[in-house]
Sequence to fold (152 residues):
Amino acid sequence: MAEELARIYSCEVDALITVEKVHKTPEEWRQVLTPEQYAVARGEGTEPAFQNAYWDNHAAGIYRCVCCDTDLFRSDAKFDSGTGWPSFYQPISPENITTHTDTRLFTERTEVRCRRCGAHLGHVFDDGPPLTGLRFCMNSASLRFVPGACSK
Fold:
């Protein structure tokens, strides 16, 4: 397979960097992820509301992709949406995510994925706070929180 590259933002160097995209077989993902992480991030699942690691996390830090460690969201962009999932009004950089139309639940939604590895993160909705009007409703199982990292 030819090497695939992606341009993503790194908060540690505060710049766009070029990285290799991450490709693994389902078995390789199962070896590095918990069953819940695999079901959500690789299987496009959803964890229960109000019963996940980060819905009520208020610590300063950064949220990274659980699969490839790509920077995804800063804690200062997190807000309480009342939905029971961690919600953000913007990603750390638009380069770090991709969005796709999702019609799996007989309705049209916008799915959010990690640009580097394709992990399913959650969905984005247009009912967020005034700063952007967006609500990135993410699954904790797709994220890894790093306290204090890249905090402004």
